[in-house]
Write a structure and sequence with these properties.
The complex is a heterotrimer of chains A (344), B (281) and C (289).
Chain A lengths: L2 E10 L2 E11 L4 E5 L6 H9 L6 E6 L2 E2 L10 E4 L11 H10 L9 H14 L15 H14 L4 E5 L7 H18 L2 E6 L2 H7 L2 E6 L2 E6 L1 H6 L4 H6 L4 E8 L2 E4 L2 E6 L5 E7 L4 E3 L6 E11 L2 E8 L4 E8 L9 E6 L2 E5 L2
Parallel strand pairs in A: 3-8, 3-9, 6-7, 7-8
Antiparallel strand pairs in A: 1-2, 1-4, 4-5, 9-10, 11-12, 11-14, 12-13, 14-20, 15-19, 16-17, 16-19, 17-18
Helix pairs in contact in A: 2-3, 2-4, 3-4
Chain B lengths: L1 H6 L8 H28 L2 H9 L2 H34 L5 H7 L2 H4 L2 H12 L6 H6 L8 H26 L2 H9 L4 H30 L2 H7 L9 H10 L3 H33 L4
Chain C lengths: L17 H30 L3 H10 L1 H34 L5 H8 L7 H12 L5 H7 L8 H12 L1 H14 L2 H8 L4 H30 L2 H7 L9 H10 L3 H29 L11
Helix pairs in contact in C: 1-13, 2-13, 3-7, 3-8, 3-10, 3-12, 5-7, 5-11, 7-10, 7-11, 8-10, 9-10, 10-13, 12-13
Chain lengths: 344, 281, 289
C-alpha cells in the first residue's frame, strides 16, 4: 500500500519534533528512515502507525485519509526495538494474538488461526518453538517472532523501529540479510527506522535522511551517497572530508592557493566536500597538498590524515596500501568528485 | 581455613566467622529453639492426642472462620489492591504521592489501634455502622467485621507486590497490542492483567497469610463468639488462659504448618514466574 | 475537552478514556479513604471527643505513664539487638558466598509468616510452667514470662527480620569493591566497616530501624501472650490501650492509641521522605512489612 505523509508537524509539549514533513512511500518498497537520535525518525514512524497524533498535517494510506483512524483500524504491522513480546504467552499465542482479538465477525476460526500462525513461524524459520515462551529465546529469535506476529494480521504497511538495535553485530548482519529476503518474498510496503547508515544503505530501496525534525534528502542509496544534497547528508552518509574554500573567477582556492578544480557558477566563500577515496594524487602546484599526520590500514587501502596548509585543516584521504608515504611526508592530491555548499 | 574453604568461596574480606556465627546463634536462640519447643510440646501429646486436640469442633470452627474470612479479605484486596496499584502507577492526580505513602499505613499502625478504630467506625453506633444498622446489617462483632479488619491489614501486601511489576511493564507491549488491533479493554484483560498474574497471586498469598495469623486488629471487632466469630489465634490465647498449653501448641502447630505451606506456595509462584516470565515478583 | 469539532477524537492507544480514568481513581481513593484514612481519623476524633483536657489527663494517668515508659524501654532493648543482628547477617550474606545462603535468607523472613500470637506462645511454652527451663530459672529467681524479659524476647521475635531484610539486598547491590579497596589500602576490618561500609548503608539502616521500631512499639499479639498484663508493670502501650478499652475507658484508650497513631504517621513521613530523598541508596523495597 502507498503511504503519503503530507505536511505533518508534531510537537511534544510545545517542543517541535517534526517540522512540516512530507514523504511519499511507494507501494511495495523498503524505505529506511535514517538519522541521528533526535532527528524525528521514530516520531515519523509512530505517526504513520497511529501511535502518535500529528499536531498538523495528514497521512494517507492509499487514497484513504488515515489521520482519522485509530492505530487499531490502520492495519499496520509494527516491530519494536525491544521486541515487546507478550511474556505470558507462548510463541504461537503471540503470533496468533492479532487474529484472536478481532471482532467475532472477522475472526477466522481457531484452527485457521493456529494454521496461519504456524505458517508464519515456518516463514521466520522458528517452527518447533511454538510452545516456548519469549524468555526462552535468543534476541534474534525474539525479533523474528515479533515480525511474524506483525505479519499475522496481514498489514498494509510494515513498520520497524530500530529492529536490530538491541542485537549484537553478528546477529544484526544475519537478520538484515534475512529481512531483505523476507521483503522480496512477501512484498510488503516496509518502513524501517535506523541510525546505522550501513544498515540503511545495504537494506533499503530508498533512504529518507532526517535531521532535526526535517527530511534532508530522499533517494536511492546510490543517489544519496553519490549526490548528497546537503552538508549534513554528505557528512552523515559515508566518509567525508571538508575544507573552507573561496571561489574566484570560477577557480576554487584554499587560502592563497588555487587547488586545481573549478566551479564556473559559484562565487565567494564556500565549503568543499569530498570522499577520502574520490581523490587522485597529482604533482604540481595547483592541488591540495598536506603533510601526513597519521596513517592506518583500513581493509585494502591506507587511510591517511593530512594537515593542509598552516591553518590547521585536517582531511582524510585513501591511498593504496603499499603507498610509501610515511609520517611527515608531503602529499599533493585533487578531489575527483566533490561538491560545494555555501559557507555557514 | 581449608575446611571452611569448601563451605564458602575464599574472600579477602574479614569477619565471616564472626558475623555468620553471631547470625546463626542469634537466630537459633530467638527463633529456632522456641519454634522447636512448640512442635515438641504438641508432639508430646502423641499422634492420637494431637489429632483429638486439632479436630476438636471448636478448633475446627475457629480455623474455618479464620480461613474463610482471610480468603474473602485477600480476594477483595486483590481486586481493589490491583486497582489501587494501577491508579497509583498509571495516573497523575493531586495527592497521588500522599495516597501512595498512605498505602503503608497498616504496616505502621499498631494492630490494637487499628482494631479499636475499626470497631469504633463499624460498631452499630459508629460512623459507618449506624448506616448499616439502619439497613439491618451488623458489621462489627460478626465475621464481616473480621473480614474488614483483615482487608485493612492485607491491602499493602497486594499493592506493594503489584506496583513494581506494573511500573516495569514497558509501554511498548501495550502499543504492540494496539497495533495488532486489540482495543484498550482487550489489551488490559489479555495482555496486562495476565502478565501481572504472578504478582497478583503472590500478593493474594501474602495478604492471606497475614490475615490468617492476625490477632490485634481482629479481636476487637470480631465479637469472639465461639463457633461464629472466633478466630484461631484467639483460641490459642483462650487455651493459654485455661492453662491448656498443649491445646494451644496444637492449634499453633497446625497454623504454623499452614503458614509454611503458604510460604512454599509463594516461593513456587515466584520460581514459576521467573522461569516463564523472566521476572520474580 | 475544548469545543468539539467534527473531527473524531481518537483515543490514545495506551490510555483509558478520561471518564474511565476518573472512575478508577475515585474508586481507588474511596476504598483507601474508607479502609485507611477513616480509621486514622477515628483514632484522633475519639481521643479528642471529650476535649483536650480529658485527653491530657488520660495520658497523665499512672497506668498510661508506665505503659509509655515500658514501651520505650522494650524498643530501646529490642531495636539495637536487631540492628546488631541485621548488620552481622547482611555482612555475612552480602560479602561472602557460601552454601545454604539462599536458605538462610528465607529463614530470616520466617517470623513474618508466623502469627504474632504464636510468636508469643513459643516463649510461654519454653519458659512457662511445665517446661524444662521455667522451673530451673525460677529456682534462680529469674523471671522471664509475665515480666520485662519475656516482652523483650517476644518483641525481638516479631521484629527480627526488619533491619536484615533491608540491609541484605542493599549490601548485595553494593558489592564488596569498596571494602576490598579499603583493605588493600591497609585499613583493618573494623576500620573498613566503620568508615566504608556503614556510611554506604546508613540510609538503608535508618529505614530498617524506622520500620523495626514502629513494629516494636506497636506489637500487640505476641506481647499480649507473654506479658501477663500486670497493671503498671508489664503493660506496654498497645496492651494498655486494650485494657482501657475493655474497661470502657474509651477516651483513655483512644488517647493512648493516638500516640501510637502519631508514631505511625511520623514513621510513614520519615519513611516516605527517605524514599524520595535517598531512593537509590535504599534497597529496592517494593514491599515492607
Amino acid at each position: 500500500m502507498e503511504v503519503r505523509v503530507q505536511n505533518v508537524r508534531k510537537e511534544f509539549d510545545r517542543f517541535p519534533a517534526l517540522h512540516d514533513v512530507s514523504l511519499d512511500i511507494k507501494s511495495g518498497e523498503l524505505i529506511a528512515l535514517l538519522g541521528p537520535s533526535g532527528s524525528g525518525k521514530t516520531t515519523l514512524l509512530r505517526l504513520i502507525a497511529g501511535l502518535e497524533r500529528p499536531t498538523a498535517g495528514k497521512i494517507f494510506f492509499g487514497d484513504e485519509d488515515a489521520s482519522e483512524k485509530s492505530v487499531q483500524e490502520r492495519n499496520i504491522g509494527f516491530v519494536f526495538q525491544h521486541y515487546a513480546l507478550f511474556r505470558h504467552m507462548t510463541i504461537l499465542e503471540n503470533v496468533s494474538f492479532g487474529l484472536e482479538v478481532r471482532p467475532r465477525a472477522t475472526r477466522p476460526p481457531k484452527a485457521e488461526i493456529r494454521r496461519r500462525a504456524r505458517e508464519l513461524l515456518d516463514l521466520v524459520q522458528l517452527s518447533g518453538l511454538e510452545k516456548r515462551y519469549p524468555s526462552q529465546l535468543s534476541g534474534g529469535q525474539r525479533q523474528r517472532v515479533a515480525l511474524a506476529r506483525a505479519l499475522a494480521i496481514e498489514p498494509g504497511v510494515l513498520l520497524l523501529d530500530e529492529p536490530f538495535g538491541a542485537l549484537d553485530a553478528q546477529v544484526r548482519r544475519e537478520l538484515r540479510k534475512w529481512l531483505r529476503e523476507m521483503h522480496d518474498r512477501t512484498g510488503h510496503t516496509t518502513v524501517f527506522v535506523t541510525h546505522d547508515q550501513e544498515e540503511a544503505l545495504e537494506l533499503a530501496d530508498r533512504l529518507c535522511v532526517m535531521s532535526q525534525g526535517k527530511i534532508e534528502q530522499v533517494g536511492t542509496p546510490d543517489t544519496v551517497y553519490d549526490q548528497p544534497q546537503s552538508p549534513f547528508v554528505f557528512g552523515f552518509i559515508g566518509e567525508s572530508s571538508t575544507l573552507p574554500v573561496n571561489i574566484e573567477r570560477g577557480d576554487i582556492w584554499l587560502g592563497d592557493r588555487p587547488i586545481g578544480i573549478s566551479s564556473p557558477e559559484a562565487v565567494g566563500p564556500a565549503r568543499l566536500f569530498f570522499r577520502p577515496h574520490d581523490i587522485e594524487l597529482v604533482d604540481g602546484d595547483a592541488a591540495l597538498s598536506g603533510v601526513v599526520a597519521s596513517s592506518r590500514r583500513v581493509g585494502g587501502t591506507r587511510r591517511v590524515e593530512l594537515d593542509i596548509g598552516g591553518a590547521g585543516h585536517r582531511v582524510e584521504i585513501d591511498l593504496p596500501f603499499d603507498h610509501p608515504a610515511g609520517e611527515r611526508s608531503q602529499i599533493s592530491f585533487r578531489p575527483k568528485r566533490w561538491k560545494l555548499f555555501p559557507a555557514e | 581455613m581449608s575446611r571452611l574453604g569448601r563451605f564458602r568461596q575464599p574472600s579477602v574480606i574479614p569477619g565471616f566467622g564472626l558475623t555468620l556465627g553471631f547470625t546463626l546463634t542469634y537466630f537459633s536462640l530467638i527463633i529456632l529453639v522456641p519454634l522447636v519447643a512448640l512442635v515438641l510440646r504438641s508432639a508430646g501429646l502423641g499422634w492420637n492426642g494431637f489429632w483429638a486436640a486439632a479436630l476438636d469442633p471448636r478448633v475446627l470452627a475457629s480455623l474455618r472462620t479464620s480461613f474463610l474470612t482471610a480468603t474473602i479479605a485477600a480476594g477483595i484486596n486483590v481486586v481493589f489492591g490491583t486497582l489501587i496499584a494501577w491508579v497509583l502507577v498509571r495516573y497523575r492526580f493531586p495527592g497521588r504521592r500522599i495516597f501512595d505513602a498512605m498505602v503503608d499505613l497498616p504496616f505502621a499502625l499498631p494492630t490494637a489501634v487499628a482494631g479499636i478504630a475499626l470497631t469504633a467506625i463499624y460498631a452499630p453506633n459508629g460512623i459507618v455502622g449506624q448506616f448499616a444498622a439502619q439497613l439491618g446489617w451488623r458489621i462489627a462483632y460478626t465475621p464481616i467485621g473480621i473480614t474488614i479488619a483483615m482487608i485493612f491489614i492485607g491491602l499493602p501486601f497486594v499493592v506493594r507486590t503489584i506496583q513494581p511489576i506494573l511500573e516495569e511493564i514497558s509501554k511498548e507491549v501495550e502499543e504492540a497490542s494496539a497495533t495488532l488491533g486489540a482495543n484498550r479493554f482487550q489489551t488490559i484483560t489479555r495482555v496486562l492483567l495476565p502478565s501481572l498474574m504472578p504478582a497478583i497471586l503472590t500478593g493474594f498469598a501474602l495478604a492471606f497469610a497475614r490475615a490468617v495469623g492476625e490477632y490485634g486488629s481482629v479481636i476487637f471487632i470480631a465479637g469472639n463468639i465461639p463457633f461464629v466469630s472466633e478466630i484461631a489465634p484467639l483460641l490459642i490465647v483462650i487455651r493459654l488462659e485455661e492453662f491448656n498449653y498443649a491445646g494451644a501448641a496444637v492449634i499453633a502447630t497446625v497454623m504454623l504448618a499452614i503458614s509454611f505451606v503458604m510460604l512454599f506456595i509463594i516461593n513456587l509462584i515466584q520460581a514459576w514466574s521467573r522461569r516463564r516470565y523472566g521476572y520474580g515478583s | 475537552m475544548a469545543a468539539s469539532t467534527h473531527v473524531r477524537r481518537l483515543a490514545s492507544p495506551t490510555n483509558e478514556p478520561v471518564y474511565v480514568r476518573w472512575i478508577l481513581i475515585l474508586v481507588g481513593l474511596l476504598f483507601m479513604a474508607l479502609f485507611l484514612v477513616l480509621p486514622l481519623v477515628a483514632v484522633f476524633s475519639e481521643a479528642l471527643r471529650e476535649g483536650i483536657g480529658v485527653f491530657v489527663q488520660s495520658l497523665q494517668q499512672p497506668d498510661a505513664q508506665s505503659a509509655i515508659r515500658l514501651t520505650l524501654l522494650v524498643a530501646a532493648i529490642a531495636v539495637p539487638l536487631n540492628v546488631v543482628f541485621g548488620l552481622a547477617a547482611s555482612w555475612a550474606i552480602a560479602k561472602f558466598e557460601f552454601k545454604g545462603k539462599a536458605f538462610l535468607i528465607t529463614l530470616i523472613d520466617l517470623p513474618f509468616s508466623v502469627s504474632p500470637v504464636i510468636s508469643g506462645l513459643v516463649y510461654v511454652l519454653l519458659f512457662g510452667s511445665g517446661s524444662v527451663l521455667g522451673p530451673w530459672l525460677r529456682s534462680y529467681n529469674i523471671e522471664i514470662l509475665f515480666a520485662v524479659p519475656g516482652i523483650v524476647l517476644a518483641t525481638i521475635f516479631v521484629t527480627f527480620p526488619f533491619v536484615a531484610r533491608e540491609l541484605i539486598p542493599l549490601m548485595q547491590d553494593q558489592g564488596s569493591g569498596d571494602e576490598e579497596a579499603a583493605l588493600s589500602l591497609g585499613a583493618s576490618g573494623w576500620q573498613t566497616f566503620w568508615r566504608v561500609t556503614l556510611p554506604n548503608i546508613k540510609w538503608g539502616l535508618l529505614y530498617g530501624v524506622l520500620l523495626c521500631n514502629a513494629r516494636a512499639m506497636g506489637e500487640f499479639g505476641a506481647v499480649a501472650v507473654v506479658s501477663g498484663k500486670i497493671r503498671g508493670q508489664t503493660t506496654t502501650m498497645p496492651l494498655q490501650v486494650e485494657m482501657f478499652y475493655n474497661e470502657y475507658q474509651s477516651t483513655a484508650a483512644f488517647a493512648l492509641a493516638s500516640l501510637l497513631a502519631l508514631l505511625a504517621l511520623v514513621t510513614l513521613v520519615l519513611k516516605t521522605a527517605l524514599e524520595w530523598r535517598f531512593g537509590d541508596e535504599l534497597a529496592a523495597t517494593g514491599r515492607g512489612h
